[in-house]
Every structure is written in structure tokens, then in C-alpha cells.
Amino acid sequence: xxxxxxxxxxxxxxxxxxxxxxxxxxxxxxxxxxxxxxxxxxxxxxxxxxxxxxxxxxxxxxxxxxxxxxxxxxxxxxxxxxxxxxxxxxxxxxxxxxxxxxxxxxxxxxxxxxxxxxxxxxxxxxxxxxxxxxxxxxxxxxxxxxxxxxxxxxxxxxxxxxxxxxxxxxxxxxxxxxxxxxxxxxxxxxxxxxxxxxxxxxxxxxxxxxxxxxxxxxxxxxxxxxxxxxxxxxxxxxxxxxxxxxxxxxxxxxxxxxxxxxxxxxxx
Length: 268
What we know:
8 strands, eight-stranded mixed sheet, globular
């Protein structure tokens, strides 16, 4: 038998399933986990810059410190997303004290994120920016409809925070925001934008990108004509298939590879 026929014949033999993505191995030390989170956080800012989510001083993403859970890493104020490096990230506590870093932080970002991190011990990261489609959709004051497989990731797992009452600077407003989020993974802040929260930086970053895309998709579909949403039982099933944190973690990996190849300086 020729070598070619032998190769074809071997393809017909039973093989072990090797196509599944492998979960990340737990970090061995706090230092290793801290570096992992900070690197993914810096990568998230670079990606958000590429997607045009920067808007002046607005926008913030946080990652809880693995060793000190009452502290979290955040971007410094007035540094463009496209220029943020690991070394730029600042450590703050729930009282707003800057423990590591020399620059100011976004006050609204502190108010929102400190409330979320206090209320949800399971939340490792949270993201909020003034993305164009997120802002446009938030003006509707409604939840996303399950009109595509991708939008089903947020079915029954997000809420609308209303009414808009100005920049979130008051602690009570941050607490109200956290209460509205509940145990969900995302919020639509009415007349404001989108917010995602979850158990890894990777999942939160992907969910924000996916939610902004879902908002964009629904705006386009609504402009074209009447919508035909997916039936609730199918939407619920699809959410269990495409809306998991593990799936979001995996979806982030190609983006990590892409930005690490294009802008490796963010690791500095």
C-alpha cells in the first residue's frame, strides 16, 4: 500500500477527542495570578482602544487583586486606552485610596467598581465604557432581544439600570447599580452605556465586546423592519450554550494572541 493510501486509511481509525479547548491551569502563587490578571487587563484596554471604545476621560475596567480581595487594579485617569501598559495600572481599595500609582483615577469608575466588588465577591473583573452602540442602544431603555445566537448569550442575564441621574459619583448610586445588577453578568445603563462583570478579566472583556456587538446588531435590525425574536425556550437553551464564563474565556484567547502580536509593549 502506498504512503498516501496508508495516511488515508489511518484517518478512518478511531481517534481520541483532541479538539476541545483546555481550561487554564490555576496559578501557583498570588504573584503569578496577579501578573496574569494585570496582563489581561492591559490587553483589554488595548483591544477596547482598537474597537473605538475610548471617550475622553470616560471608561474603566477593573480586576480584583488575588491576594487582597478588597483591592482592585484600575486604569489611571487621562491615559488613552491604546497606550496603557501593565506598569500603568493602579491599585486602589474600596475607600478610594490609591495604594500603587501616581496618577488620579476616574471618580465615577471608583464609585461603580467599588460598589460592584463589595456586593459581588465572585466578581473578579468589571468593564464599562461609553461605546457608541452601547450608548445608542441604552437610549431605548430596554433589554436586548434574543434575535441572534450571539445575543442569546445575554438572555435573562442582564438588566436595565434606570433612570439616568448624571455621572455616578454618589455611593448610594453605586450601591443601587450593584443591586440592579444582582447576580447577572451585564447591565444596560440607561442613557449611559453598557457594563459587564464576571469571574475573569477574559470573560468580562469578551462579554463587553459581544454585548456592544449585540446592541449594534439590534439597532440595525430594528431599522430594517419588524423583528422576529427567538422563542424563549430556544433562547434559554442557546444562552446555556454560548453564554458561559468558560466560553467567554475561550473567546478572548484569539483576541489576546492578536493584540499580543500587534502591540507587545502593553506587557511592559
